[in-house]
Known about the structure:
CATH architecture: Roll
Amino acid sequence: MLAEARALIGVTKVRRCEVTARDIRRFAQAIGATDPVHFDEDYARSTRYGRVVAPPLFCQSLAYEDVPPDRLPADGSPIEVCLPIPARRTVGGDSTFTVHRPVHAGETIVVTSQLKDVYAKEGRSGLLFMVVIETRFDDADGAPVASETATYIKRA
């Protein structure tokens, strides 16, 4: 049952994201971050960063492809976790997110996602499928900015 999905292990997707001050400001507003280093350019210049920087988990907003809602599965889960397995619902399971350095307005972040594993597990409510995705966020020169390993649980 998992053979077709497991054949996708190792498949890598790469996208480039241009980060703007507006992106950073909107993310900061969405999470309630009030530090002016995230939206006030004059203030940010006076800090050790020298310019506007994103809140630490900003890269998570870049993790998944921006697709129209009608292309998403019925449960609204990211297109990246759509695999040929008999499951209709997806929930987040586990995530390990590492920040290597802040993201600055005006830079390009290269997002590289790879399917690392897919496996079945019997849960209390029946068969569950675990989907493990590893994502790297690098700057345009290839230096690491952040990384995440996330496990999604798909219910049959």
